[in-house]
UniProtKB/TrEMBL annotation:
PANTHER family: PROTEIN HDED (PTHR34989)
Transmembrane segments: 21-40, 46-64, 76-97, 109-129, 141-162, 168-187
Pfam families listed in its UniProt record: DUF308
Protein name per the record: HdeD family acid-resistance protein
Keywords: Membrane, Transmembrane, Transmembrane helix
Amino acid sequence: MTIADIERQIPETVVGAVRGTVIFSALVGIAVGIACLVWPAATVNVLAILLGIALVVAGLYRIYQSFAATFLSGGLRFALGIIGLMILWAGIVVLWHPSNSGWGEADRIWFLAVFIGIGWIFQGVAELFSATTGSRHSSVWMAVLSGIVSIAAGIIMLAWPALALSTFVWVAGILLIVVSVVSLFTLPKKV
């Protein structure tokens, strides 16, 4: 049995549904990509809000973990709880409405950039560490290259937060439009 034989067995309604889904997601991707290019500051603000939500959820999860992980020592559970509270606090600070907190859009952008930059630096350090452990999951030079690039990106994000984030949004917007248009060329053919 060939792939063509299998394709002929797929009902026309399924092919139509897949085509409709691909077209819809491509149109949404194009619209979001254009929004990123037209309103980069608003896009960064939305990213900050999404980061805040993610931090609140991650903080609550860590707090839950500190109570649920009974197999850990009391000290580790306490540390998990404190880390969870710090992450939860950071999420609340990011989400706090600027008119109530005195934080403006520039402050949110800076906070977002700091979290992304620190995260990339930690990821880079972890990659460099994994390169020295003799892991066979990837080549040593690729792990070192990935680590160096991640650390450099983190430092750039911390040094020039507004420029780095606006560049990130522009590149993401352009790539989102390109990927969405290209996906339209992969629509399944009607049989």
